[in-house]
Specification:
Layout lengths: L2 E7 L10 H13 L3 E7 L12 E4 L4 H24 L3 E5 L1 H4 L4 E3 L5 E3 L6 E17 L9 E14 L7 E5 L9 E2 L1 E3 L2 E4 L5 H4 L1 H12 L13 H16 L3
Parallel strand pairs: 1-2, 1-3, 3-4, 4-12, 5-7
Antiparallel strand pairs: 5-6, 7-8, 7-9, 9-10, 11-12
Helix pairs in contact: 1-5
The structure holds glutamine (GLN).
The site of glutamine has 13 residues, from helix 2, helix 3 and strand 8.
């Protein structure tokens, strides 16, 4: 039986607005497909075993929690995480976790946290928090449906470097910075987003996209189809309601 391991970065500190639902979705969808799926908790002080992880999840957190994990992230996690990603593992980072993937995250108080430097992006807190429902056009990823839905609550404004591709384009909400119409980032096997909600239960097509990317190195080319009729009906209703309210 093929194993599937989700590495949960800082589950006790970087986990807000239901982000735990992403872990449940990744694991249960793998189990429904017959994988031996498990969760590896990667809290502070843990730096062994990352080479066995297929998908890393890095959830959201307020500035306080980001500061609490920051030293461990750069001193203990950065090197094995970078090596695992280079080996074909995937990473999904939401909001606070996403912000720490780049060059730096600067808080509203002007405190600057150098990031992992995995991606050419930076984040600076704005005066106004971006709060509300979000609809994103991800047709560039070739997903069906070609949208993502979720909820955002962040003060950070993230700006992507010229070579980076956003996860998608904002159809409703603020996204990366409320200015350039982008939301998140999709860079190889690394996916960043501001969408809480939690994200993956409402967007099973993205869950499968990330899982498939991570399992390529295990020789899994595609995943057995699951009956997502209920999840996708919910997705479409929320999306259409949100977009109707914006016309
Ligand atoms: N502290 C960060 C911000 O406010 C991230 C918040 C979050 O993870 N929702 O932008």
């Amino acid at each position: 039986m093929t194993t599937f391991t989700v590495g949960w970065l800082y589950p006790d500190l970087m986990n807000i607005y239901g982000d735990r639902g992403n872990i449940l979705t990744l694991v249960e969808r793998a189990r429904w497909r017959g994988f031996s799926a498990n969760v590896m908790e990667l809290g502070k002080g843990v730096h062994h075993g990352l080479e066995d992880v297929d998908v890393f999840f890095f959830g959201g957190g307020q500035d306080r929690e980001q500061a609490l994990v920051y030293d461990d992230l750069l001193e203990l996690k950065a090197e094995p995480l970078t090596r695992a990603l280079a080996g074909g593992a995937a990473l999904l980072a939401v909001c606070g976790g996403y912000q720490l993937l780049g060059h730096y995250y600067q808080t509203a108080q002007g405190e600057r946290f150098p990031g992992l430097g995995l991606l050419d992006l930076h984040t600076e807190a704005g005066a106004r928090r971006c709060i509300g429902n979000v609809v994103v056009d991800v047709s560039g990823l070739g997903l069906e449906p070609s949208t993502l839905i979720g909820f955002e609550n962040h003060s950070g404004r993230t700006f992507l470097g010229p070579q980076l591709t956003p996860l998608g384009r904002v159809m409703a909400g603020s996204g990366n910075n409320g200015e350039d119409g982008t939301e998140g980032v999709a860079a190889g096997n690394i996916f960043g987003t501001y969408l809480h909600g939690s994200l993956l239960p409402k967007n099973p097509h993205l869950a499968d996209h990330i899982t498939t990317a991570a399992l390529q190195r295990r020789g899994v080319r595609s995943l057995p189809v699951l009956d997502d009729a209920l999840e996708l009906e919910a997705h479409r209703r929320v999306r259409d309601r949100e977009l109707a309210g914006r016309r």
